[in-house]
Specification:
Elements (H helix, E strand, L loop, with lengths): L10 E4 L13 E6 H5 L5 H10 L4 E6 L7 H10 L3 E5 L4 H35 L4 H12 L3 E5 L4 E5 L17 E5 L2 E6 L1
Helix pairs in contact: 2-3, 4-5
Length: about 190
């Protein structure tokens, strides 16, 4: 399942019994044991297909010394790009789950820090009665791509950075476009 390593992990769930494996959800990293996987009574192909259909992020499996995952499970996981990660005996399932949750919380904290930074930047512009030049400069700083502001008639009013090459016909420009409006009035676009 190596090609599925880009799947998004939103949470971790501990599957201590085969029944827990029937209640998994999208974007979960399912932490379990080889014995639990094999105890479902399903053949490997069907088990992996069911987990993939639930859109889980992957499976983290503790292997005891005598455990081996059947080739059928591994080949099905490869075919469906469902990552299966193994870890050795002696590692508590709760420790793996806690480590995943800690990583998820840290990623969430980083996203919230970024959102707060963006909010504070634009709040400072608004409080200082800044205009389109300051907004465009801040967008350029945040996004790292040239930003153009056009008025309601399609005329270029601000370009950031000032030496950026902007197409003469902005209607054909490739990129993200956002309308600037207040109420029913259209003031132009940010391109």
């Amino acid at each position: 399942g190596t090609s599925g390593m880009g799947r998004q992990v939103s949470r971790a769930s501990l599957a201590a019994t085969p029944e827990h494996l029937r209640r998994v959800g999208a974007n979960e990293l399912v932490v379990t044991t080889a014995a639990t996987l094999l105890g479902t009574g399903e053949d490997g192909e069907r088990l992996v297909a069911r987990l993939d259909a639930a859109q889980i992020a992957g499976v983290a499996v503790r292997l005891d010394p005598t455990d081996r995952l059947p080739a059928e499970i591994l080949s099905a996981a490869d075919r469906l790009s469902l990552p299966i990660i193994t870890f050795p005996e002696g590692t508590a399932l709760a420790d793996v789950t806690t480590a995943v949750l800690d990583a998820l919380l840290d990623a969430q904290r980083q996203r919230l820090d970024r959102v707060l930074d963006i909010h504070q930047r634009f709040s400072r512009i608004a409080l200082a009665r800044g205009g389109t030049t300051e907004v465009a400069a801040t967008l350029y700083d945040l996004l790292g791509v040239p930003v153009a502001v056009v008025d309601a008639d399609g005329r270029l009013t601000v370009v950031e950075p000032s030496d950026a090459t902007i197409p003469v016909d902005l209607s054909a420009a490739v990129g993200v476009r956002r309308t600037i409006s207040a109420g029913d009035h259209d003031y132009g676009e940010v391109v």
